Amino acid sequence: IILVSCGDESAKIEDKPNFVFIIIDDQNMELSCFGKDYIKTPNLDRLSSEGIRFSHAYVQQAVCAASRASFLTGLHPRSTGVEYPYSYYFVEEVIPKYGTIGKHFLQNGYDTRYFGKVHHGVDEKLEVPNYYPGGTRYVDPENIEIDRTLGNLGVPPYEKYEGPDTLFKDGRIAEAVLDALKAWDRSRPFFYVVGFQKPHLPFRAPEKYWKFYNQERIPRVENPGRPEGFPEIAKSWYNLKQYKWEHSDPDSLFSDDYARLLRQAFFACTSFVDAQIGKLIDEVDRMGISEDTYFVYISDHGFHLGEQNHWGKTTLYESSLNSPLIISRKGMSNEGTVSESLVEYVDILPTVLDLAGIKIPAHIEGVSTVPLLKDPGMEFKKAVFSQQERDAIGRRKGYSVRTVRYRYTEWHDHEAGVIMARELYDLNADPMEMNNLAIYPEHEALVQEMAAILEAGWEEALPDGVVNRAGNPVAPPAYSWGPEGVPRRKLWHEVYGGDESEGWRKACERRISIDDGTSP
């Protein structure tokens, strides 16, 4: 959660404002403050009542590594070169050259600390070592043993277990942040980035939070089937390849009871993390610094809970891409309001830098949303952009643009140089994205209009009067970094040859040129 003040409000703080920047892993828009009154999140409701929530905030890519690379640097995927996991280019070139959100605040005198999951697989060095909670994925001894012997396929995608919050990792993360707040040296402001892990799979939470929800009364999604004109490449079944689900057939629906069980588990995680956030809010209040502290609340992306028969992320639909953003500070103007303007997660870094009075570096591709804090109803971006890979080494990708009314997506085969499929949804008439207008000849003119917006890109969709001259180089295709990238690097070399000693160089040689249309 980042509490944000706008305009001259930061001038009321004698020194620099503090920040509690909260990153949730896989939280979708099913939150009470965004209109889902069956969700029990009193602490987020509290933040929302004291801040501004953005109902149309979109991630650049609905997978943790790519999304985090974008919002931690303020760069689009075209510039970070990250798919999943992080890439060599991002770790070896982008981070050292441009820095990240933590480095910007550290270099400007902030007590800067990371708690829990911030990056994906990178341990960024700050003044104080990153805090990690340790422990096993599951709490129940039986699940721990099954996970140890059989791995994901032997354990369910959920867990409830009676015990204190600190039995689970997010409970320990909250305690570590509380300890840091209590020991804070008031001679300089703090910027604490708090990465809570739930509701990321497996959906694990103490049993008391499961009891917040009556499984029989949990609503099923309104759009459980595939859209009319659904292209096969749009399907994501990655999560069904993991864990012991009711079944692993991506084309079959779960039973109603099982679907409600999964939604109950996810909502229990949401309430569990909300309780941890409440502890942080209470401590900031106790310290008497509520009016000097910004809370910013985001997720790394959304998550399907049955919409379009998906259970996971990595799609180019609203359920994956539309993600929560709350900026809140006690005493800020326009508190309790919602902005429906289009914003992107690349806008988060320049926003917090702006609120802190830190100069926004020229390389950043996002735009500060501070004007929306002053006037939540103003027009902002004309369109927002997202993408998603489909074959692990970037040969097939989807590119999507969202305007106020429409979502348009193209699925590209870069090796063949062709567009494999198109999708177009009228979100006014079809908010559930169940009718792909691109398959109908009578909508061809609209398809071409949206294709032109997609091709023009984010530079042409900036708010009126805003010009971005970052001019960052196009990243090479993602050559995966670290232990988690081993399978993808192996596939890369099976397709393109060479070995790991020259893999990154070969990836750079295959750099995609957006301008001349050459393929990787």
Largest sheet entry? 7 strands, mixed
Shape: globular
Succession of helices and strands: EHEEHHHHEHEHEEHHEHEEEHHEEEEHHH
Give the strand order of the largest sheet, numbering strands 1, 2, ... along the chain: 4-6-1-8-9-2-10
- Would you identify the regions where 5 or more consecutive residues have pLDDT less than 50? 1-14, 512-520
What characteristics describe this protein?
15 helices, disordered N terminus, 520 residues, single chain, alpha/beta, seven-stranded mixed β-sheet, four-stranded antiparallel β-sheet
Describe the protein's architecture and organization.
The chain contains 15 helices and 15 strands. The strands form 4 sheets. It has a 7-stranded mixed sheet, with helices on both faces. Helix 7 packs parallel to helix 9 (256-286). Strand 12 and strand 13 form a beta hairpin. With 520 residues, the protein is α/β, with parallel strands linked by helices. It has helices spanning 42-49, 64-71, 77-80, 88-98, 101-107, 141-150, 169-182, 207-210, 256-286, 318-321, 348-355, 370-374, 444-456, 486-496, 500-509, and strands at residues 18-25, 51-54, 57-58, 111-116, 158-161, 190-199, 203-206, 293-299, 325-328, 337-339, 343-344, 384-389, 396-402, 406-413, 418-426. The radius of gyration is 22 Å and the shape is globular. The two termini are 38 Å apart.
Helix and strand layout, with pairings?
Blueprint: E1 18-25, H1 42-49, E2 51-54, E3 57-58, H2 64-71, H3 77-80, H4 88-98, H5 101-107, E4 111-116, H6 141-150, E5 158-161, H7 169-182, E6 190-199, E7 203-206, H8 207-210, H9 256-286, E8 293-299, H10 318-321, E9 325-328, E10 337-339, E11 343-344, H11 348-355, H12 370-374, E12 384-389, E13 396-402, E14 406-413, E15 418-426, H13 444-456, H14 486-496, H15 500-509
Parallel strand pairs: 1-6, 1-8, 2-10, 3-11, 4-6, 5-7
Antiparallel strand pairs: 2-9, 8-9, 12-13, 13-14, 14-15
Helix pairs in contact: 7-9
